[in-house]
Amino acid sequence: MKKIIIYVFLIFFVWFVVHTLIITFDGFNDSIGVSDAAVVLGSKVELDGNPSKRLQGRLDKAAELYDKNYFDYIIVSGGTGKEGFDEAAVMKEYLIKKGIQSDNILLDPEGYNTYMTAKNTKEIMDNMGLKSVTIISQFYHITRTKLIFQNIGFEQIYSAHSTHYELRDIYSLFREFFAYYKYLLYY
């Protein structure tokens, strides 16, 4: 019995390591192409109402690619966090300060999780006749986000990761292993 437990643990450990390496490789290898719109997934807004450094990294990547004409619209998606700020509104304001036209920034204030962001993005884009999307988030979040967007019905998906890194990314990468399978099974 002890050998079986050890083998099961080793199999799980190898599976975890391989999957984590795949998530990391996929997240760092941007798939950039011309798309109809980009979606920036929300993250924490600080108590002073400014985007966190993590969120700024995502928004800066979106602004950089927008300026290079990779897409015409940016969908900012997020909910109202415990800090009391509408992430999407804060994100839009940040992008406007970066010189992006207000009309080209679309709000999704109901993107409380990755699934809701994908669902809401699909609805926004379908209503506008837009098909292809570029996902912008942290590297560890890209694989799961692409999975959900595919399951929602997107066929042409590009991705780009924020170049802002934190020590917290190690925990987030660990968490992504479990979140990926949760989303694979439930969404």
TrEMBL record:
Residues of the DUF218 domain: 36-176
Key word Lyase present: no
Gene3D superfamilies: HUPs (3.40.50.620)
Assigned GO CC terms: plasma membrane
Keywords from the named record: Membrane, Transmembrane, Transmembrane helix
Pfam families to which the protein is assigned, alphabetical: DUF218
Keyword Membrane in annotation: yes
Sequence intervals crossing the membrane: 5-25
Protein name as annotated: DUF218 domain-containing protein
Species of origin: Sedimentibacter saalensis
